[in-house]
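Following up on my earlier message about S-adenosylmethionine. Here are the inputs again, as you asked, copied directly from the submission form:
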Amino acid sequence: KYSEQSFNSQIEAVAICRTPYKQKFGIPRQPGLVNVRGWVELAPHVNNIDAVRGIEQYSHLWLLFCFHENLAQGWKNTVRPPRLGGNEKLGVFATRSTFRPNGIGQSVVKLHNVVQRNGKVCLEISGMDLLDGTPIIDIKPYIPFSDAIDNASGGIAQSAPQLIDVQFSQLAESQLAEYSSENKVADLKQVVNDVLAQDPRPAYKKAKADAKIYQVALYDIDIFWHLNNDKIEVIEIKPTS
Ligand code: SAM
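Thanks, got it. Here's what our run produced:
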């Protein structure tokens, strides 16, 4: 305990984030990169429409959350950011690493709607970079005049990652169309395209020939893909078993 500044606070999740991202691999590395819808479902102890009164005036929200899937792995003073090819080390507080002393992440997301579903107050959002089931520990409005800083320096992350072209086999194309209409997921092909265009592979894989078949889980389907002439090709999709 850091006694001079210790505080007695039991942090309890105020919401759970529901997203199509069913595993960490493939989730965009920052918010705002892929236009996918998700939900923030208020937890029972704050599940009151009054708790979000006025929130619809804001176009964007800050979500503070816990990297709950990585807590057990602990943290180190230095990390190897994927952007640097995994070769160089930076201090944990100089990065957005998911392995942190308190395991807290923060993301700006777009707010679309406030609704009540099955007795739960839900915020419909998009652009999140969160795993399905992520505990949200606070929700705050994004305030452009203060939060958006012109000419800020982005360190090792000056601009969005470069995108890679994505192609679809005929089989994948027809499977996606079928799944879209059966499950009423609009724009599924576009979502798959935009997720894979981020090139989820670790940096060291990108540097050399790569014959591996990868799998990304979105909604309740597994998407199988590989590298084909420096482009990503979606081979087929299967229902998640
Ligand atoms: N925007 C946030 C931030 O800067 O604090 C998160 C950035 S972090 C690099 C984004 C990655 O966190 C995603 O690509 C995903 O792999 C991982 N992630 C998302 N939700 C998670 C969770 N609940 N537990 C562990 N890792 C998670």
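One observation from looking it over: The chain has a mean pLDDT of 94. Hope that helps, and feel free to reply on this thread.
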